[in-house]
């Protein structure tokens, strides 16, 4: 029995250290390739940004991208709602503040019933985009300087159709925002990078991704994806069905969302864990499913198992092991925060990064038990078994 427990404990440590080494190898490998690659800067990049007002950090995010350094000529297409008066005013103010940046403001009616609002905007934006490269960028996401220069060359690799980045969260303005930021910053690299050593990526991070216009034209753009509420996986599946690969880039980009209260926190986390159940887990192959469960889902429970064993079977050896396990975790997360995530997590929140690992299984279980109804940017959305959705409650128009 003791030998079995020891073996499991060593396996848990090996899992964490193995992922750490894989992530280090990923960034070192891509950095070496990056230094030997010259971007084709004659290609114009059209950056499509669906925008919806409401978050107080929105304008800083948008302004940050307008100040971004890149070798590529760019145009921004800001896609807003006709009835979003706050977005109309705020976007025009930013356009006036940065007259040297090419920004096209496109105001659209509400998406028709059962049509994804984001996909509705992307389809319209694609029609008006002039660039040979199409980038999709969420309105809460800020690219680092040279982020485009690092991501776009991935599109020249054999059979690659979409290249995408790695998210981390920036907002620590209150307790709930800090919790969400720690959820992402403690798991992002550990979730998205290691499995790519075992299989080609089977989904993308929809906050930022790039595509060649000529490839988009070959796959008929975003046509047929209008009814998919999980847009990132729908796009990934669309390109894969046409024989294209997805490429994970080392571009780490910040996201800022201010979480108002506990209800906002739980609704956001619930949506994040419901979406994979309704998309990825229903559509990928058995092999990919096994990799997903072994590298992402099951490993999420390990920190809780370690603490649970200490509580149920307290001993000096169990306590020492727990300290070693979480010490290794603390070292890994601190290294990631410093080297790759732009020190987004303040030092005083490092312990919260560890604590968050203990409650992640709770969020997964809650999502499994919850009804397939989510809150998304002021809208209440019902997810159907066939992958479609219905908007039960529309967003109230923001007041100025």
From TrEMBL:
Stored Pfam families: Glyco_transf_21 (PF13506)
GO biological process entries: glucosylceramide biosynthetic process
InterPro entries, per the entry: Ceramide_glucosylTrfase, Nucleotide-diphossugar_trans
Residue ranges of the TM segments: 290-312, 318-337, 349-369
UniProt keyword Phosphoprotein, yes or no: no
Keywords (A to Z) from UniProt: Glycosyltransferase, Membrane, Transferase, Transmembrane, Transmembrane helix
GO-annotated molecular function: ceramide glucosyltransferase activity
Keyword match Metal-binding: no
Membrane topology of this protein: Multi-pass membrane protein
Localization, UniProt: Membrane
Pathway field: Sphingolipid metabolism; Lipid metabolism; sphingolipid metabolism
Cellular component annotations (GO), alphabetically ordered: membrane
Protein's name in the database: Glycosyl transferase
């Amino acid at each position: 029995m003791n030998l079995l427990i020891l073996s499991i404990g060593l396996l848990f440590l090996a899992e964490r250290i193995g992922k750490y080494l894989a992530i280090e190898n990923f960034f070192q490998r891509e950095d070496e390739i990056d230094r030997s690659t010259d971007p084709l800067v004659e290609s114009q990049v059209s950056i499509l940004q669906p925008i919806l007002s409401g978050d107080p950090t929105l304008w800083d995010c948008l302004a940050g991208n307008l100040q971004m350094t890149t070798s590529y000529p760019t145009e921004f297409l800001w896609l807003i709602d006709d009835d979003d008066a706050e977005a109309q005013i705020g976007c025009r103010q930013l356009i006036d503040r940065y007259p040297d940046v090419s920004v096209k403001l496109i105001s659209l009616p509400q998406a028709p019933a059962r049509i994804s609002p984001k996909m509705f905007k992307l389809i319209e934006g694609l029609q008006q985009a002039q660039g040979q490269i199409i980038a999709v960028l969420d309105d809460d996401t800020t690219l680092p300087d040279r982020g485009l220069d690092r991501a776009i060359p991935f599109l020249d690799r054999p059979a690659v159709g979409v290249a995408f980045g790695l998210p981390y969260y920036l907002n620590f303005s209150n307790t709930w925002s800090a919790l969400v930021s720690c959820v992402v910053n403690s798991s992002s690299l550990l979730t998205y990078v290691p499995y790519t050593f075992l299989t080609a990526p089977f989904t993308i991070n929809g906050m930022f991704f790039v595509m060649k216009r000529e490839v988009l034209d070959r796959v008929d753009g975003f046509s047929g994806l209008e009814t998919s509420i999980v847009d990132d996986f729908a796009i990934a599946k669309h390109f894969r069905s046409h024989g294209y690969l997805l490429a994970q880039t080392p571009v780490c980009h910040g996201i800022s969302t201010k979480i108002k209260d506990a209800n906002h926190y739980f609704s956001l986390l619930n949506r994040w864990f419901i979406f994979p159940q309704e998309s990825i887990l229903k559509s990928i192959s058995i092999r990919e499913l096994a990799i997903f469960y072994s590298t992402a889902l099951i490993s999420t429970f390990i920190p809780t198992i370690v603490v649970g064993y200490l509580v149920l079977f307290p001993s000096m050896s169990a306590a020492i092991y727990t300290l070693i396990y979480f010490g290794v975790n603390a070292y890994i997360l601190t290294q990631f925060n410093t080297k790759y995530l732009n020190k987004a997590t303040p030092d005083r929140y490092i312990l919260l990064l560890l604590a968050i690992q203990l409650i992640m299984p709770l969020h997964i279980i809650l999502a499994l038990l919850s009804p397939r109804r989510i809150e998304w940017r002021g809208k209440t959305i019902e997810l159907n078994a066939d992958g479609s959705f219905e908007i039960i409650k529309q967003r109230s128009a923001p007041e100025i």
